[in-house]
Structures are given as C-alpha cells and as structure tokens.
Design brief:
The chain is of the alpha+beta class. 37% of the residues lie in helices and 14% in strands.
Amino acid sequence: MSIEHQYRRDIVCFGKMLHQGGYVAATDGNLSVRLDEERVLATPTAMSKGALRPSDMVIVDMNGRLIAGRHNVSSEIAMHLMIYKLRPDVRGVVHAHPSTATGFAAAGIALNQPLVCEVVIGLGSIPLAKYGTPGTPELCKSLEPLIPHYDAILMSNHGVVAYAETLHQAYMKMETVEHFAKIALVTHVLGRQQPLGDEELRKLVLARTKYQGSRSAAPLPLALRCDGNHNGDRKAS
C-alpha cells in the first residue's frame, strides 16, 4: 500500500470518528495531511466527514490549486496551508466544531487555565483567536500570530483547529481540547476553579520534556514567569 493511500484511509477513519463523536455535523469540518513540500491531501467541500471514501480526497498545491481529485476544494484550505507554511513540523491538521469547546469560543473564553495536568503537558494552553469569516483571509490573519506558538486554537464563534506531526496526533489534540472544555465547563457551573500553582507548573515543564508523544510547542497556560506572575491570555489582537 502506498503512503498516499494510507493517508487517504487515515482521513476517512478520523473523519468518521469526528462525526460519530459529534464533533462535526452535516458537512462541517475538514482534515488534511501534508504529502510533501508541494502537495497537501485534504477533504473536499460539501461532504459529510462520516461518509467519505479514500477516493473522495483532493490534492492541492501550496497555493490551494487543485492538482488531483474529482471534487471541489474546501474554501477553508487556506487555513490548513498557512499552518503548514508556518509550522514545518506539522503534517496533519484537523478542524471541527466540538460543541463544548465551540461554546467557549462563542462565549469569547479561552481555555487557558491550568486546571488539568495532562492538558498542560499535552497542549500547554488553548488560546482564543478573534473572529474571522470562514474561508477568507480575515480568518487566516486572526490565526497567524498564534499558529507558531500553539498546537490547538479556539476560533471565536466558529470552532477549533488542531495540528501535529501526524493526523492521528492532531485528532487526539482535538479530543483533548473538547475533553478539557467539558471539565472547564463543570468548574464554571460549580462556581469554583482550583488552578495549578507555580510549583506544580514548574514540575510539569520538566515532565513535558519526558512525556512520550508530547512535543507541544505551546507555552504553559498562564505562562510562568520568573516573578511568579502569570500572562496566559494570548488572545489575538
């Protein structure tokens, strides 16, 4: 089996998982894999992510022009291409609308509180990008300053994008974002949060370097500074 065919099957697999998990509805969301320095394999527009076949994918160049495929290219391909250009380490991108995390995005609340150690290790912090109309340069402009520093981003009134060295890892980051959003929501309902302190965060910095599968580029939530103060709200301006 060729590597391209395996990637096509991977996109089908994770597309179904997004749909079955309620992370997308109707034709929402998109997934992509970087094939090489000049080509990206991606889901087409206007198709359910739960009903894709390997042959449905499109291949585009780094300018978003269709190279191969019988379907149309998604209007949001520019977001994927910008991530690949800004993050040479990334080879897989997942964009979805998981309900709880998207609820935080619609409320204008970043997921940047250090509440769960596994999220600190795996993602660091999940910032909120200001609103940009989907499929337009406005959206890319809002994401651009955040992409080099984070591995998952909430998009105001829109959804979530996550990316990693593989599509599998990008999907798992998406799951982590939604899981953390549910936990954060519970703390809001209870009216109380108990964030990790400076000493706990220092220990997690060390743990992150040793944790298998965690190579997050993101800073800590409420990023630690020498004076013990915090500066974690990285919302784009």
